[in-house]
Structure to design on (313 residues):
């Protein structure tokens, strides 16, 4: 724990209707951080709770000014909650943790210790998830696909408990439901990512805020992530390749019928001929879509992450 004593730690806690857990969470976080950090702040983001969570937070703040409160007028989602908090964190190290006590605050020092061995983000890995199988199985599948598609080697992308160097959270941009892909976004920016096994407890109070449709959304978001952030993929290269395949097959078919026609054979409509024409039309559609996307992305400002930026004025 030697390393973490020199850091100011900002803990970010997104919450939606978690009133019953807040007091215990506050106490456990405070105990752990007072023992292991040079200073800390607890940023609770109330994501539109309607169960009196905000009153509880006000009570906590009245006893401890290290409690900071952001409270949304309505429910905007966990990504919005995290990204608003990331804008105001003051610490060198940022920790995110769920408010439902499924993650243990006591594991934070070990995660920071791992960060100190040369990483920018250490994600918790709940190997034994204390959730129903309807959640654990899709989650395994989701993690596997995300890992393969993104090239980021983690087992558990969506663990609520993570520690980051402040640069990481100041840099990444999460909206929609992209909080599930924070390690992917950070990894692609060149930050060093690792994971550490953590315990996972069953939910004590309240109920999960996500149903199974999260997984469909998760996969759609994965596509978004691929397109929005993959630096290498130019849209025209991507769509152009698909268009080229359709165009090649389609024109080969039409060419065949053209040659038949030139050779004087009567031309009559056959299914394959219609198929060839349709493929050419599809190729033009996809190709021009790629061109549009390319024009659009050329107008989007690119943001680069620097390792060093030393220039004289
Ligand atoms: N949460 C939130 N806004 C939402 C949904 C969830 O701030 O729209 C919070 C929730 O209160 C909890 C954390 O995000 O602190 C994780 O949510 P949950 O425990 O429901 O997810 P699960 O553990 O089932 O994956
Ligand atoms: Mg939970």
């Amino acid at each position: 724990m030697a390393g973490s004593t020199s850091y100011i730690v900002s803990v970010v806690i997104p919450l939606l209707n978690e009133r019953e857990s807040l007091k215990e969470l506050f106490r456990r976080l405070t105990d752990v951080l007072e023992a292991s950090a040079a200073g800390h702040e607890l940023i609770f983001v109330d994501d539109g709770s309607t169960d009196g969570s905000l009153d509880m937070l006000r009570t906590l703040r009245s006893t401890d000014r290290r409690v900071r409160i952001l409270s949304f007028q309505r429910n905007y989602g966990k990504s919005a909650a995290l990204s608003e908090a990331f804008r105001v964190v003051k610490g060198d190290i940022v920790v995110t943790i769920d408010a439902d006590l499924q993650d243990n605050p006591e594991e934070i020092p070990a995660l920071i210790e791992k960060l100190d061995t040369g990483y920018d983000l250490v994600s918790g890995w709940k190997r034994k998830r204390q959730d129903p199988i309807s959640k654990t199985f899709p989650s395994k599948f989701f993690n596997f696909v995300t890992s393969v598609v993104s090239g980021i080697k983690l087992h558990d992308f969506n663990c609520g408990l993570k520690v980051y160097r402040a640069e990481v959270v100041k840099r990444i941009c999460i909206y929609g439901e992209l909080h599930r892909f924070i390690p992917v976004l950070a990894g692609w920016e060149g930050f060093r990512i690792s994971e550490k096994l953590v315990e996972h407890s069953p939910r004590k109070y309240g109920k999960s805020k996500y149903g199974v449709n999260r997984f469909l959304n998760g996969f759609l978001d994965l596509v978004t992530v691929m397109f929005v952030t993959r630096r290498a993929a130019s849209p025209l290269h991507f769509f152009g390749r698909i268009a080229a395949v359709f165009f090649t097959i389609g024109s080969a078919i039409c060419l065949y019928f053209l040659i038949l026609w030139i050779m004087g054979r009567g031309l009559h409509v056959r299914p394959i001929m219609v198929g060839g024409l349709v493929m050419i039309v599809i190729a033009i559609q996809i190709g021009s879509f790629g061109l549009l996307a390319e024009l659009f992305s050329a107008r989007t400002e690119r943001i680069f992450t620097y390792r060093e930026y030393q220039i004289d004025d």
Q: What stands out?
A: Residues 235-262 form the longest helix (28 residues). Residues 190 and 305 are 8 Å apart (CA to CA). The chain is about 50% helix and 10% strand.
